[in-house]
Each structure stands twice: as structure tokens, then as C-alpha cells.
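ok trying again, last paste got cut off:
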Amino acid sequence: MADELVQRAQRFVNETYGSIIGMTVDEDGKTGWNTMYALTRALQYELGITALSDSFGPTTLSTLTSKYPKLNASTVPSANFCRIIQSGLYCKGYDGGEIDGTYNSRVEAAVTKLKSDMGVGGVYTGSDVTPKVFKALLNMDPYVLVDYGDSLGSTGIRSIQQWLNGRYVTRADFFIIPCDGHHSRDVAKSMLYAIQYEIGLADGVANGVFGPATQTGIKAHTLTVGSSGAWVSLYSAALILNQRSSTVFSSSYTSALAAETTSFQAYVGLPQTGNADFPTWASLLVSYGDQSRPGTACDCVTTVTAERATALKAAGYKYVGRYLSNVPNTTLDKVIKPGELATIADAGLNCFPIYQTWGGSNAYFNYPQGTYDAYDAIEWAKYHGFKDGTRIYFAVDYDALDADVTDYVLPHFRGIYRVIQENSRYLVGIYGPRNVCSRAMVAGYADASFVSDMSSGFSGNLGYPLSNNWAFDQIATVAVGSGTGYIEIDKNVASGRDVGQNTFDPSSYTDGLDAEFDDTYRDAMLQEVRGYLESIGVPETGGDGWTDSDWATLGGISNSEAFDLVVGADWLFTSLARQLKLRKALIQAPVLWELRKFNPLDPVADLAVQNGLKDDCSTGWGQIFGWVAIEARNYCVQQGIINGTLLVPGTAGNLTDVWTQLHDDPVYNVKTAAYLTIYNAYQIGLSRPGLDTSDADSQAILARYNGTNDAAQEYGRQVGGLYQVLEKYYKIVRNL
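nice, full thing came through this time. structure:
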């Protein structure tokens, strides 16, 4: 909603400075960074700074400090200078006094209230705008409790923010932090500055980094019951910022604070002393905590030989994380080697599996990729012999912003979770920063976390507590052993939530399974598919009642386009075929056929269901009815082929949900087509289709896809021919 007074501020900066500061802003009445940048540039212009920038940096601050250390009705140098202050106040939600260029009583009251909200009113008394207050005025930080949609700010955290501002704002490198009641990167950094100041580090030396001097200073300040003062205030603040909700912000170390300390120590896997010792301080201040503390788990890209396993065991390690596969087209060889799991188990160690291909940017993460990764991980886990109940950790190995988690990571893990839950008896874990792990847990997509806490500067670690379901906490890279037993590992603290595996099944990998398609054969296969379809009366475009105008308007799908869609999803068909131990051409053929046979009546039928005029119709890539999908999935659940809850075909909610997924989600539709292939074989009294199903049986199964009448038999013959063309090329690829 537009704010008229913010809009007035935007109009002022555009009309007065738009031609001289190199930018204008939208006059939309909504406070945003562009408006603050424009006001900052306007201030720089008034200060005589020639190199204007969006940043209220050291030059702006020092120039303002030297010229106008206190701005008030007597010292404000011009009406426009005053209007910048007034505009900033309106953008912050305070009364700017009409932006009339007069530092009047309304402006004075607003400035006084602003400084009180910041917690600096006792330091910067009166109604003057001081340089650091001006800097804070021209940014987007709020100084009142804010509800960001998922949670309302905490009054306890706001009190800490105000206390930090009031105590340390006069230090050179400490700037006013938000007072919105939410922990954040800025608040975490300010805590480190505060501790460095209390240690006695000078301005210019204190840097907000958890370095050797800071660590040494903290080690000299162990707190116990009876301690008091600023150190206790900082310690109780650190507990509150780590979401220890029962903690009271206080300068006295009481027995209640000791109990909270013991609880926190137990939570993060530290000795439960009840004292604020260095390991506890470290775990509160930086994600990796005390990197010298022992860990009983590790992960590594290096093969664990017998000598290395012995060294790990001797160093106190119990659990080893190893990778299910290598990354395609790279030279890094991190995959579990044949016999390695037996070597690990023989040394008395357990192993937990990690699945990671790329995962280094948001571009990797999406629902289809998550689906692919899950199928691939299942296959590799079975190949290595991991038993049912094993938890596979899928990696998010980059600094995912909170918006990235919403838009990319969670859809990706929804794909992973749905496949793992439906198609295996494995469990889903997640490797990543704290916020990523916690949000995947809350969404229900991962039941345990392997937290990448070594990356302490990640935005997803700064300001976030250790996730509630943490199993492994990665804290340091170390070397273990010597000679042939030497190995570099990432040291992890283990919570006991996941103990990995120490016995393994013989590999269930089977020769003769379909492989992903080799594009070398694409053009040849396309030409043969097109030739076959045209030979049975299916032209490249048109037919089946299509007019030229309908084809263009409704989006008819040509032979080549249907082929491209199916081959483009070859990864999915291949994964399904390998999991179900059947030929992917048996799934692809009817889907390709139905895509090509999309006709003008199909969108009409879909619309009727969407508008509540019909209960059901065939829909999606494979043109599958909702009730048919329910029967096929129920059958596969009953046979133990997939996991899930039996659905009641006649229940409207079930039918609507299944139909919607068939219509909206091609992955769900194709998976259902695969289950329908198995169900169709059962319906006509044939054995479950496998790797050696005869051509005659395959044709019969394909015929059942369309029903039981004479038209279905013709369907089987036509689609059976398409199956033969596809299978011809897949057989070539299998034998490469």
C-alpha cells in the first residue's frame, strides 16, 4: 500500500536532485533501497562530495562528522539539507514535519523517538541528528518490532539489540544495528565486536572476526554462578539469540542461567558443566564453535583403506560419511570403491552415505532435478549395498539465501522426498547451512541434518541456531594418521541421531538394465520414429480432427515435438525402468503416442474438470484418468512395489488430488504411467513385466493401456510398433 508521505519524499528527491545525483526513484509511496540510495547521494551532494555512491561509507561519515557533528535547528545548513532528514524520517515511519525544510518541533520529537527506539537516546541525548544516527536513518533497518510474515520479532531480542547499540555505539567501528527483534548477520557481527571491546581490543583492532585474540580473551572469561557484569549480559544475550527461549537477558549468572547453559551444552554435544566456558561461548558465537573439540564422525572424498580405517578408529571416530557417486565430467574420484564398505565395517566403523553432484548454486535446484537425484541415489545406494532404513544426505553446498531456499531448495527436496518415500525404504537427510536444514525439516522433507557449520560466513549460518534435527555438525578440516594411514577429513560432531550402517547387502545391481540415452543416436531414432508413425497414418502434424487454426491456437504436438519431450525426460523414464526392472520403451511408447495424439477435445475435457463440470478425464502427458491412476498406484502399494497409503477411488478428495497432479506435474504423470504398465499386466493375467518380457506380451500390455475392446487391440499393435523402434535403439545403448 502506498504511503503518501513516502511518496512526497520520493518526489522531493527526484525534483531537487534527480538531474545531479545520477538517479531517480519510482514515486510509488513504498520505502525501498533505491529511495535510501537517492537520499544518501543527495546528502553526499550537500556535503560537497563529488564521487557520489549508494553507500553511506567512511567518506560520507567522516565528512559529515567533521562538518556537522550535531544537526539541529541551529546547525542544519540549508532547507534542502533538512528536507533530506525529514524525508528519511518519513521513510522510516516517523513524522518528518511536512518536508518543509524546517527543523521544527515535530522533527525534534521524531528524532528523539527514533534514537530511543534505537537504544542510543541515553548516549546521544536531545533531538540532534548525529552522524551515526544519520547513517542508520538512510538504510532499511527497522527499529521497532517487525513481523516478517513467518514470525513476529521478539521483545527479548529487541532489548538486546538496543542494549548493544547503547553500550557500544561510540566505538569507531560499531554502527547502529536494527532493533526489529530478529537475529541476523548484523546482530551476530555486533556481538563479536562487543566481546572484542570488552576484552579490551582497541578501535581499528576489533574487527568482528572470531580470531586468535578474541578466542584467547574469551578463554579468560569463564562465567559461573555468581558472576556478574557486561560479560554475563553478553552471554545471556548469546543464549537468547540462539533461541534458548527460557533465558532471561541479565547481568547476573544465576542458577537458572546455569541450567539453561547445561541444556544448551547437551543440545550441541558439549560437556554439561553449566559454566560459560570457551567451548560454550564458541558454539554460541560462530557456527563451527570450538574447532579443537573432539568429533566422532567424519566425511571425506578419499577412499578409506584398511590402514586409514585403523587410523580413524584409533583417533576416536565411529562414523564415516562417503559419497554414493562421482560427479559426471569431473576428475574428482570420491565414489565408494568396491570392498570399501566392508573395510570400514571390519575396522569397527559405521558409514553414512552422501549424495552430491553439483549443488553449488541455486540454478541446480528444482523439482525435476530433485526427482532425478533421488532416483539416482536410490540406485547407487542399492548398488553399494545400503540396507533399507539407511538415511541418504543430499547436499546443498552453497550459501543459499532464504529466498533461494523458498524458490529453489524446497521444491528440489520435495522432489527428493516424494521419490524416496514412494520408491524406496531409505530416509532423506540434508547437508547444508543451518537455515537450509531447518527449513527442509519444517517442510517435512528431511528428518535429519548434516550441518555445514565450517562455512561460518554463510548467510544461512550467521544468525541461525543449529537445526533441531541435527545428526552431524561439520566443524573443521583435519588430518588423521600417517604414512599409508594418512587421510584428510572433515571432522564432525555426532548427536547420535544417525549411526550409519555397518552391515551391507550384496549389490542388487543387475546387468542388462536400461542406460540413459546416447544422443549420438538421436537423429537416427527420430527419423525412424517419424517414418514409422507416418507409415501407420500419423503425419508429422495435424490429423485426428485438427484444423490448421486449431493446431496453432491450441498447441498441437507434432511427431518430432512429442519425441523431443519424451527423450528430454529420458532420465526419468530410465530411472523408473531401472527401479522397476523393466524396459523403459514400454513406458515411453504410450506416453509418446498420447502426447502426439493430443487433440482439440482434450483441453475442453480438462477445463470441465477444473470448473467442476466433470469429476474426471484422461489428462497429462500419458492421458491418464484419475480413477485409473488410483487403481494402479493402489495395486503397486499392495504388491510392495512402491510405498504409500491406499487411496479410495470414490472419494472426491482423493480423485481431485490425483487428477490435479496428473494434469499439473509431468513427473507424477510419467511415474503413474510406469505403475500403470505393471498394473495392466496384472489385469490381463500376465506376469509382472521385466527385462525379458516378450514382444507379444509387451503388445498385450500396451493394448490394455487403452482398454479391452477391438480398438484397444489396434492401439496395442500401433503402439507396439513404436515400442519396437524405441527398443531397437535402447538395446544398442545397453550393449555399448
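cool. The mean pLDDT is 95. Residues 301 and 334 are 5 Å apart (CA to CA).
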